[in-house]
Amino acid sequence: MCQGGDFTDFRGTGGESIYGRKFEDENLTLKHTTIGLLSMANSGPDSNGSQFFITTAPCPWLDGKHVVFGEVTDGFDTLGKIEAIGSKSGAVAQRVLIEDCGQL
């Protein structure tokens, strides 16, 4: 998976939302069944902030724990390139920055 959204600490330990520091889980019914699903990263129940992840494979162990809120519909080649510079530990070989993509 590829994780991002920590715009306060820039190392996966921070972030906040428009609702304040954390907000509750909204819907845990959608499953992590395929590549390209967008989900909220969290540190436990009802602890969502600004961090999110994109699945690069099915991740059934995340079902019922992380809210799926969208999906990638284009740019899977870019997702593959981002995944390729990552590691199992989470460290990346170089900084990844998505900007001026024309989408929010």
TrEMBL record:
The keyword Isomerase applies. InterPro entries: Cyclophilin-like_dom_sf, Cyclophilin-type_PPIase_dom. Keywords: Isomerase, Rotamase. GO terms for molecular function: cyclosporin A binding; peptidyl-prolyl cis-trans isomerase activity. The keyword Nucleotide-binding does not apply. One of its GO terms (cellular component) is mitochondrion. Residues 1-103 form the PPIase cyclophilin-type domain. It is an enzyme of class 5 (isomerase). It catalyses: [protein]-peptidylproline (omega=180) = [protein]-peptidylproline (omega=0). Its EC number is 5.2.1.8. GO terms for biological process: protein folding. Gene3D superfamilies: Cyclophilin-like (2.40.100.10). Belongs to the cyclophilin-type PPIase family. PPIases accelerate the folding of proteins. It catalyzes the cis-trans isomerization of proline imidic peptide bonds in oligopeptides. This is Peptidyl-prolyl cis-trans isomerase.
